[in-house]
Write a structure and sequence with these properties.
alpha/beta; Rossmann fold; 2 domains; 7-stranded mixed β-sheet; 3-stranded antiparallel β-sheet; 10 strands; 33% helix; transport; cell membrane
Length: 276
């Protein structure tokens, strides 16, 4: 068996010596190339898991392995996209997208030499792929929220990350734009096949995008249910209104409602599969 790219074993996180217990005895294994969505009640620790994997936070106890290392730093190239695109207003869109190339090895050693040639071409190609051809010279304030989020995805992918972390990246968008970006994100994943960990409150989004959905308990969080999603690819918006899709979303909704008050249950040893 191959080693998982992410492996949390009995992880606990407490903020401060006597502060909030965010995660309790959390186990999560993610294999290379999977697209895993974390869902659950607000404050259950979804973003805490993302911060652990990104190396922005250390577990209070338990084991954390990312790409074979105990420290995520330098273990694997990571791309990040959040609900707020946080573009630098003094840079144009192309230069904003290229920021990881300026920071991350092995790209940064060649940044000064390639930023107006190869790297700029790479940024323009990604922008065109997400429907932003010709927008590289625009400033962030000249783009809509949906366009900025497309650019944010480009920035997260430009340095060819093996691991993509998405924290509510479409939560602030209107429903039509959000659904367009689901389709775009699915296609980018199919094309590039990074391992993806998505935090979301949108159960349709999780069912549309993920290969697995992990339901978390209320704080202190842990994985209550691990469910494989086997709907065929590429998934379409029409599929998201099919009875079996609606049944999955409803089952997840009921599970999260139970998770708000129910005692913590044991995690299944194998993810439950949802038939296509």
């Amino acid at each position: 068996m191959t080693s998982p790219i992410i492996d949390l074993a009995d992880v606990t996180v407490r903020y401060g010596a006597n502060g909030t217990l965010a995660l309790s005895s959390t186990d999560l294994r993610i294999e290379q190339g999977e697209f895993v969505a974390l869902v659950g009640p607000s404050g259950c620790g979804k973003s805490t898991i993302l911060k652990l994997v990104a190396g922005l936070l250390q577990p209070s106890s338990g084991g954390l392995i990312v790409a074979g290392r105990e420290s995520p730093a330098g273990a694997v190239r990571i791309g990040l996209a959040f609900q707020n695109p946080t573009m630098m207003p003094w840079l144009n869109i192309r230069d904003n997208v290229m920021i990881p190339l300026k920071i991350v090895e092995p790209f940064r050693q060649d940044y000064a030499r390639k930023k107006r040639g190869e790297y700029a071409e790479r940024a323009e190609a990604l922008l065109a792929q997400v429907g932003l051809a010709g927008m590289g010279d625009k400033r962030p304030w000249q783009l809509s929220g949906g366009m900025l989020q497309r650019a944010s995805l480009c920035r997260a992918l430009i340095h060819e990350p093996q691991l993509l972390l998405l924290d509510e990246p479409f939560g602030a968008l209107d429903s039509f734009t959000r659904e367009e970006l689901w389709s775009l994100t699915q296609q980018l994943w199919l094309d590039k096949k990074p391992t993806v960990l998505l935090v979301t409150h949108d159960l349709r989004e999780a069912a549309y995008l993920a290969t697995r959905i992990c339901v978390m308990t209320s704080r202190p969080g842990r994985i209550l249910e691990d469910r494989a999603v086997d709907f065929p690819r590429p998934r379409t918006l029409e599929m998201s209104y099919a009875p079996e899709f609606a049944s999955l979303v409803q089952a997840l909704r009921m599970r999260i409602a139970e998770a708000r008050t129910a005692p913590v249950a044991l995690v299944p040893t194998q993810p439950e599969k949802v038939a296509a």
